[in-house]
Design a protein that fits this description.
Length: 471
């Protein structure tokens, strides 16, 4: 078999079943038209992306004529853009892609133009340019080659066998840090187009029919996925932007609700308690008259006083005596700060376990030890990290905690207490540097594995019609 055309003689009727496997289209009914020069595929939502030196195009295909589902998202490299004149005499500029076609067990590459063929009886037209000398066409016959079925789109195997098409991904981040750079680097290594979007520079058109997200004066394109890296200082606005993407139907790695809840320490602990997930005894009160009772609820001193929106160990104070606890609480109240008090787990000895959860699985864990004289183990404060072996109970606790907030990417911090693992915090924007270096694993790659699995075409519902359904 040559690289360009099949060598055996292949007989085609004026209509045949074909497949375009690299586009994730295992079954299409196509019209064989020797009167047309170019081949055409029915495509909608056609949009170019990527670098101008090597542009790509993404589009959606309705493989079944007359039906809105299934809807298959596709992408391919652009090989040309040319003017095509249709049979009714109208000219149109179309993007041209090159992809293998399979017919009757044979395969060869063809060029295909993308156009909206809505209302046409065939969603795929094969022109003479795609037919070599070894192919004969019988204009009066149909289905000379084995027939396929649209029922293949109802198979659960479709999702598993779908090609890893190029994705357009937005990273919502205001910082050019290690995590942001790794997300861009790993995504581009896989052939995806990754754009970093400054959350604070987004603005939104909120309406019922056409909600939009704008950035620097232009409407943002349709993304396959959004990876939120929302800083604590812009949580409220950042989650509003994520809600807008959710309204548009974009897959967001972490949803707005989970991010909002995880950032509010009080709300977060209420969620953990509601799911019966182990955590240090925690108490909260607004009135200064309740200070003594508040300290008693967590077992007395030593205890932790923590701001509700503290991050990276900031706003967390260890009070070793009751008098010290009362002084810290009074000071926080004087600043009109919202805080909670928490039992101090002595046996943790200034260490915690960071479990990195991706897609409902713990993919790595590290033990963090605080700097000398500091009970906080945050790496940003000089703590050190080494890879950790965790127990089944610790693994289950981390997974349940991430699931309680609906987070597909989460850093779950555990304390090893005598009574079992206690969740200290659930981080919706965990740093990738420390965990990748400690574990030696490509955590960012595992995140992209999850994203790719989530944005592949979903199987359609089984159809009751026969294989030769007209359309």
């Amino acid at each position: 078999m040559s690289t360009d055309q099949p060598t055996p003689v292949l007989k085609l009727g004026w209509e045949e079943w074909i497949a375009l496997p690299e586009l994730g289209l295992p079954a299409l009914r196509a019209k064989i038209d020797t009167g047309a020069r170019t081949s055409a595929l029915h495509a909608t939502e056609i949009e170019t992306f990527g670098p101008s030196t090597k542009p790509r195009v993404r589009f959606t295909v309705h493989p079944v004529p007359g039906q809105d589902h299934p809807l298959i998202p596709c992408s391919a490299e652009v090989v040309d853009r040319r003017e095509v004149t249709s049979s009714n005499g109208e000219s149109e500029m179309r993007y041209v892609i090159r992809t293998p076609i399979e017919v009757g067990g044979q395969s060869w590459p063809i060029e295909v133009t993308l156009t909206d063929r809505r209302g046409m009886t065939s969603h795929m037209l094969i022109g003479r340019q795609a037919l070599g000398d070894t192919i004969t066409v019988a204009p009066s016959e149909r289905f000379c080659q084995p027939e396929l079925s649209y029922d293949v789109y109802a198979s659960a195997r479709l999702r598993k066998s779908a090609p890893n098409r190029t994705l357009r991904i937005a990273v919502l981040s205001r910082e050019n840090n290690f995590s942001t750079r790794r997300l861009v680097e790993e995504g581009e290594k896989r052939g995806h187009v990754v754009e970093v979007i400054d959350t604070s520079r987004c603005y939104m058109a909120i309406n019922t029919l056409a909600p939009e997200v704008h950035y620097d004066g232009t409407r943002l394109p349709r993304y396959d996925a959004v990876i939120p890296r929302i800083g604590a200082s812009v949580t409220q606005y950042g989650t509003a932007v994520i809600r807008q993407f959710e309204t548009l139907g974009t897959h967001c790695v972490n949803g707005s609700t989970g991010i909002t809840a995880s950032r509010d320490k009080l709300h977060a602990h209420q969620i953990l308690a509601g799911q019966r997930i182990g955590m240090p005894s925690t108490a909260f009160a607004a009135s200064p008259k309740d200070t003594s009772n508040l300290i008693g609820l967590v077992g007395g001193a030593p205890l932790i006083v923590k701001l509700l929106e503290s991050t990276q160990g900031k706003g967390v104070v260890l009070a070793e005596t009751k008098k010290a606890a009362e002084s810290v609480i009074t000071a926080f109240r004087g600043l009109k700060a919202n805080f909670l008090v928490q039992h101090f787990v002595k046996e943790a000895a200034g260490e915690d376990i960071r479990c990195l959860v991706v897609g409902g699985k713990v993919v790595a864990a590290m033990k963090r030890t605080g700097a000398e004289g500091d009970f906080r183990s945050n790496l940003h404060l000089g703590g050190k990290a080494v890879v950790a072996r965790i127990t089944r109970e610790e693994r289950d606790t981390a997974v349940r905690a991430a699931r309680a907030f609906g987070l597909n990417l989460a850093g779950v911090d555990l304390l090893r207490a005598e009574s079992g693992p206690k969740v200290l915090e659930v981080n919706s924007s965990p740093g990738l540097e420390g965990i990748e270096r400690a574990s030696g694993k490509n955590i960012t790659g595992l995140l992209y594995d999850h994203i790719e699995s989530r944005v592949r075409p979903a199987p359609a519902k089984p159809r009751r019609s026969s294989r030769r359904t007209s359309g």
